Amino acid sequence: MGSHQDSTRADSRADAPDHLPTPSTAAGRAGLDALLTDPGRAVIALDFDGTLAPIVADPDRARAHPDAVPALAALAPKVAAVAVITGRPAEVAVRHGGFADVPGLDHLVVLGHYGAERWDAATGTLTTPAPHPGVAAVRAELPALLERSGAGEGTWTEEKGHAVAVHTRRAPDPQAAFDVLRVPLTELASRHGLIVEPGRMVLELRPPGMDKGAALRAYVRDTDAASVLYAGDDLGDLPAFAAVDVLRSEGTPGLLVCSGSDEVPDLRKRADVVVDDGPTGVVRLLRALAARLA
Fold first, then answer.
1. Could you give the CA distance from residue 192 to residue 137 in angstroms, rounded to a whole number?
2. Which of 46, 88, 179, 217 is the most exposed place for a label (fewest CB within 10 A)?
3. How are strands ordered across the β-sheet holding 156-159?
4. CA–CA–CA angle 156, 160, 165 (5° rounding)
5. 202-244 pLDDT, tens digit each
6. How far apart are CA 98 and CA 36, in angstroms?
7. Where are the alpha helices (DSSP H) in 125-264?
8. Of 79, 127, 73, 133, which Cα lies nearest the Cα of 100?
9. In terms of Cα–Cα distance, which of 284, 275, 262, 233 is closest to 49?
10. Rg of the Cα trace of the chain?
11. Between 153 and 43, residue with greater pLDDT
């Protein structure tokens, strides 16, 4: 993607009520034009935490923005499909998002565990593979590793079925705890055939080959989409951004949206549209798209 200049950045923000922003890159403008011209072949793909749901200290308390489901329900019937792509288990994202049994969301799918799981709103069906044996092995070793690490109080683990995440956001110095843990967790993951995916004050140990980019590309291929919008906020969304770049090079226009966070400057730099107020702005963008397609 080309460089972004300050003079064009203001036009790429989705900060006005129901305002459809002008992307700051030619590729982004082409992606938006394709979506608006042929919405019936467009895929709208979004991360969950930080994009549809505000980031909170305890992930179990994360819930979708109160206006997210209505905005998605207004937009989904006008496009080919809406996909929520998340590292969470699919059923957890469905529950925390409030996506089940919502009129208008028949075209929604949740791709959990980076695409390893799939939940379809039309049928309520969940498909999930057997867990990688390395996940159980690292789960057993984590308590002793965390105790030895000296990362401090407030560091805790989240069980994710096909992965295990270590959070540092509650620590007295979250970044210091994150930095202390990164190397030993990477070594632990490697011993058991896993990788470490860093995020916003979280390090996730999971099987290789599972990422949002692979999930997005597979879904775009399966739906025969002619355009794609992807919105995310974290390091784990960079593979999805890269996937959109590849799709663009192959002739499928795409639009990249950053649900703004100063914690992930790389994502902001690569986005065509930056929404500085996070899920609130993403909801506003979804509403603006639905209104334009009315």
1. 7
2. 179
3. 156-159, 164-167, 202-206, 195-199
4. 35
5. 999 988 877 899 999 999 999 999 999 999 999 889 999 999 9
6. 27
7. 133-149, 174-191, 212-223, 238-249
8. 73
9. 233
10. 19
11. 43
The Cβ of residue 222 has, within 10 Å, a number of other Cβ atoms equal to 11
Q: Give me the phi and psi of 265, to 5 degrees please.
A: -65, -30
Rounded CA separation 208/197 (Å)? 10
Structure token digits, residue 151: 């990362």
Q: Phi and psi (nearest 5°) for 97?
A: -85, -20
110 CB-contact burial (10 Å; exposed 0-12 / middle 13-18 / buried 19+): buried
How far is Cα 204 from Cα 136, in angstroms, rounded to an integer? 14
Distance CA 88, CA 232 (A): 14
Q: Which two tokens stand for residue 105?
A: 């969301």
Q: Tell me, what amino acid is at 208?
A: P
For residue 211, give the nearest of 245, 242, 246 by alpha carbon.
Answer: 242
Positive or negative, the Cα torsion across 83, 64, 266, 116? negative
Q: pLDDT tens digits for 243-284?
A: 999 999 999 999 999 998 777 888 999 999 999 899 999 999
- Chain centre to alpha carbon of residue 265: 16
Strand, coil or helix: 17: coil
